[in-house]
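INTERNAL AUDIT FORM
Audit reference: QA-55
Scope: verify that the stored structure record matches its stored sequence.
Auditor: D.O.
Record contents follow.
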Amino acid sequence: MFLKRVCRNYSTGKSLTVLRLGPTRFAQQAWSNLVSKNNVKVVETDAANREQFISELKSGKFADVDFITRTFESFKQTGMMDKQLLKLIKEHTKVKAMSHNGAGYDQVDAIECGNLKIQLSNVPSLVDDATADTAVYLLLGAMRNFQLSSENMKKGQWKTQKCAGTPIGHDPEGKVLGILGMGGIGRTIRDRLVPFGFSKILYHNRHQLPKELEKGAIYCKTPEELFKESDVISISIPLNKNTKHIINEKSIGIMKDGVVIVNTARGPVIDESALKTALKSGKVAAFGADVWVNEPNVDPELISLSNVACLPHMGTHTVETMKAMEEFVVENVQTYIDTNKVLTMVPELKGKF
């Protein structure tokens, strides 16, 4: 911490123009401090869609921009930060770095960023607690039918039926929990759920964790091994070409009958069509999710099923977490000013700058 303060007191003084995409709700003071302590200019877009943003790029409006910060919501203004858009950014700006306000950065082509020599940072760790809390809520809601009971109660069904006619749920005690993806979020989910009395906790990662990080969780070498043994499956993997539709008709087929699935990762890791069939048949007893395919235009049939507990992608939707995330984005800009490198390079680009 002392070294960081020293670096800031002796900032490089280089000028930097930052294009800020998406709203700033809680980090106004952090941005103000950044600008006052450094030779930083902040600009924003007037675009309402991708076409307008590309027009702004080609007009030269952002010709002096060195750094881009973006939020998940900025997708509405730019669309995917794919090869096409990144090449246009490289061609019409001076951008050398980008900071995404979120742990997941599937809206940005990280590999193409590397090819174009654009650094990319995300916000790891700070989202772990809020996302894990959301996963616990959804897991209990799915196992105990809490969302359905609330809906039935609001309809006045408690007056005529026990527990408003809600089917009897299940306790976590004695069940096998499988965590697909044991990064920071997955490990925090595990820590939150240990007191609930699962008989054992399994996990799958590309690589086994050190014993001190496993904390008694049992490593499965393949996702299939985890699918076969788990009563409850919690998903917290990144979305990429290898994980899209990892939950599909085949993988659901090898799961236990009556399995409960919870997803706080990204919607497209699940084939929603296959999931919907399994929920209707009872193969999957219940599903809880905060993330969906084609957000916010979710499948109305899927979320209307009585055995689905649903949230509108609000895993980090707390004042404390959102403020910390926004301020961390500013921290990445400051670190770039001081060192010419972002603070938290995404895994795909580590060691390449």
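Auditor finding: record pair retrieved intact. The radius of gyration is 22 Å.
Action required: none
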